[in-house]
Design goal:
Blueprint (H helix, E strand, L loop, with lengths): L1 H26 L2 E8 L22 H6 L9 E10 L6 H16 L5 E5 L5 H11 L6 E4 L12 H13 L9 E4 L2 E4 L4 E2 L8 E2 L7 E4 L2 E4 L24 E5 L7 H9 L3 E6 L7 H12 L3 E6 L11 H5 L3 E2 L5 H12 L5 H10 L1
Parallel strand pairs: 1-2, 1-3, 3-4, 4-5, 11-12, 12-13, 13-14
Antiparallel strand pairs: 5-6, 6-9, 7-8, 9-10
Helix pairs in contact: 4-9, 6-7, 9-10
The protein binds aspartic acid (ASP).
Aspartic acid binds next to loops.
């Protein structure tokens, strides 16, 4: 009798353990880490080296093993998408990433995604995903300025914080986020501002969204332009994107690069002009030839802050569009996606006002 009583108690305790064990795993969000390479996965010969290393040398398992603390915040699994230095990023990898993220969210059991990425083109991938991922769930890009093998590497804390941001209900509906150096930025506004230092990612003038304060993501503002679940762009089933080039305006500019772009068959040109997207008279003549051939030309600016707004009457006559406040590299992405939908200039101009 006594034996059966204890057996029953033991069985009840065992069930309780099993149930609480399962429920604690279930109560944690499921976060998938998609690894693409970069300095965060970089390996150098010496611990004091911060240059001359191989970006993307270490796999996602090595990165995760270095930060076991991520498991306190989420059930984490990793997938290697590619292992590249992000200076070599391609449209094909972007399409693979966007499609994989949409697939994972469609499964229903993934609550957030972290993408480990090189810092050189991190802001471009973030903006591309901001326009092509169709979910309110958090997508967070993270990188590092020092290789994983360096003294005081910034990658491990950045990765832990990125998982915290991806696992946080506060991050839902904020669009694709970039989290490094304890700060959270919006994909549309963030840019790399320093070639070397760890505090390189900023959203100049418009400001970052929030901090990771001692492990807790806290937001103070949001980016108001359309993104993610409110985006009209879809890359499902696409294997390539329209060919769009950026041409950088300078004093003494000429027709050379515009003519070369026309000859190469581009579908769009972003002219990174001086000041308010001002176009050198020599380049203007060449760009007028481009629009006459049906190539879409968008004036952007090399200044780094501010909005490109209508200026010269000749720009209107030649049907040049205004790039709003997007950097030239992000204007290129929006024009690529716009051209997957339409060649109508009024529609494309609307998109530059909305995204
Ligand atoms: N060249 C590297 C990359 O973008 C730089 C970095 O990750 O910091 O992959």
């Amino acid at each position: 009798m006594k034996g059966r009583f204890f057996a029953t108690i033991l069985a009840v305790v065992a069930v309780l353990f099993a149930v609480t064990g399962i429920s604690s795993a279930q109560s944690k969000p499921n976060v998938v880490i998609l690894a693409t390479g970069g300095t965060i996965a970089g390996s150098a010969d010496s611990a004091s080296a911060t240059t001359g290393y191989k970006a993307g040398a270490l796999g996602i398992d090595v990165l995760l093993n270095a930060v076991p603390q991520v498991k306190e915040y989420a059930n984490v699994s990793g997938e290697q998408i590619c292992s590249i230095d992000s200076k070599d990023m391609t449209d094909e990898i972007w399409l693979k990433l966007a499609n994989r993220i949409n697939e994972l969210f469609a499964r229903g059991d993934v609550d957030g995604i972290v993408i480990t990425h090189g810092t050189d083109t991190l802001e471009e991938t973030a903006y591309f995903l901001n326009l092509t991922v169709h979910s309110d769930k958090p997508v967070v890009l993270v990188g590092a300025m020092r290789p994983a093998t360096a003294i005081s590497a910034d990658g491990p804390m950045n990765l832990l914080n990125a998982v915290r941001v991806a696992a946080s209900p506060n991050s839902v509906g904020k669009g694709v986020l970039v989290a490094l150096n304890d700060e959270i930025n919006a994909a549309r506004e963030v840019t790399k501002t320093n070639t070397i230092t760890v505090s390189t990612f900023k959203s100049p003038e418009l400001g970052f969204l929030g901090y990771v304060n001692e492990g807790t993501p806290e937001f103070y503002r949001t980016s108001t332009r359309r993104h993610t679940s409110d985006s009209e762009f879809s890359v499902t089933g696409r294997t390539s994107l329209p060919y769009v080039k950026v041409i950088y305006g300078t004093a003494n500019d000429d027709e050379l690069f515009v003519d070369a772009a026309i000859k190469a068959g581009v579908k769009g040109i972003i002219y990174a002009g001086t000041g308010n997207g001002s176009v050198h008279m020599n380049a203007e003549k060449a760009l007028a030839k481009a629009t006459a051939k049906g190539i879409v030309v968008v004036r952007s600016s090399r200044v780094g802050n501010g909005t490109v707004i209508p200026a010269e009457q000749s720009y209107i006559n030649y049907h040049f569009l205004d790039g709003d406040s997007l950097s030239p590299q992000k204007a290129r992405i929006l024009l690529q996606l716009a051209l997957t939908k339409t060649n109508d200039l009024a529609q494309i101009q609307r998109m530059f006002k909305q995204y």
